[in-house]
Fold these 4 entries.
Entry 1:
Amino acid sequence: MESTSPKKFRAELKDYLEMALKEPLRIQRRSGENFVLMNEDHFAGMQTEIASLQRRLLAMGDLASGRTSEYSGRESRLARLKK
């Protein structure tokens, strides 16, 4: 991940925006605060992945604690999908 200062970022904004299309960019203040600039599509993909992992984690927690029950529908999932 490329790093820069706010002063250099402002001076070369166009170049850094082009860089952020390919990989995230860290902007570091002297005070120690850090910010990350990234492409919106990359950010949206990360948000989707986080949501997916959270759902999986919740499901695993349900399985581990026994809060699940066997599917008792009349037809199998495969049969329902074939319709």
Entry 2:
Amino acid sequence: MRSIVKAISWRTVGTLDTLLLSFVVLSLLGPFFGLEEVNAADRAKIAASIALTEVATKMTLYYLHERFWSRLHWDRSLDEEGHHRDGRRRSATKTATWRLIASVDTMVLGFVFTGSLATAISIGGFEIFTKLVLYFFHERYWARIRWGIVPGST
């Protein structure tokens, strides 16, 4: 259950970031990539399509990623109450592996909805930076929440 709630909380943050980032990239860089005739309303629709489709694809991918990491004991310790505590290296490595998976997903969706590989790579490329920061702090926040962790379990 904890993995599901974490997935929902992250997807909320991630979807808002993708929506805003996609619209900004389409608005500022779209004309350089052959999308000069796309008006603001269409840019908003494309950005929304990318962001909303990501809800399904990324929720599934994030849940699988989270389940993998819940079984991996690397850089994890037990506190005095028997709860697992994730170290900073673990959080940083989870951040990097997730970002790789998620950025490829965003680029694929960007290409599907714009037909422009350059636009898709731009959206995914900028997203690497914004979401690395957002995800790291999301992980550090969740590392402090004990809900859903059974003492002594993995």
Entry 3:
Amino acid sequence: MNNYFLYTGISIALILNIFASYRVFRSDYFDKRQKVIQVILIWILPFIAAIGILLFLSNEEKPKGRPSEFGGGAHDSIGATADD
């Protein structure tokens, strides 16, 4: 029974590390040196680094929404228009 949990944990760690390494190497966010460092971290700290880097990459690869208009614009905060 104990071996089952050990083998399951190792299998999950290997699959997660391979997937995270693949995503890092495919990413355009890091340069070559950073990619090597990230993959080393993934394999040294299997679950923590792999999950952290995958979360970071998924957040960076999300499409950004339209920027909202902030301040000024056609009507400023005091109600004046650009034509005034």
Entry 4:
Amino acid sequence: MSFANAKKYCKKTTQLIIAILVSLFLSYLSQPLINEKALDTLVNIYSILAGFLVGIIALIGDPLSLPSGSWRVAEKARNNTYRNLKGTRNLLYIYLLTLFFIFSYKLFTIDGVLEIYKKLELSEDIKDNLLSIKLLTERFILFLSYIAFFYSFMLPSKLFHVQERRVNKEIEDRRNAANIKNNES
């Protein structure tokens, strides 16, 4: 691994650790604010972002965005493209996991469901822990939401770089078609 790659992975690892710590802290602090309206807002946000992310995946994975040149140049660029696709796919999974937990949470906490749990012949420990489980689930939903928000802020930059590469490739292709080298006008 080159020094530049090691530096890049160190930066990404640091960002991940910071994102996790900040998300844990914020999810603990903001858990008392959870209500139906807040959960509905999160569902709307992540549903929209998931659709947006599918579009980004299509742009990143477009073979036309590979740099021009020989097959070796394209093969080299493939690794970066796959790395970007994997990161974006993982963010989509976080969105979907957040939506899944919100759906599950809402399903099991609607009016009357907690009363059904209390009527079941469950041990007193389980009944007493229902509130703790509810609080942990709320914090986990918030944790996933904050992580997803943190990484979503990187999407505009990623989208910009994809489009920038596509524009530069188009200019290079037009220059090549006109038999103009890069340093000529």
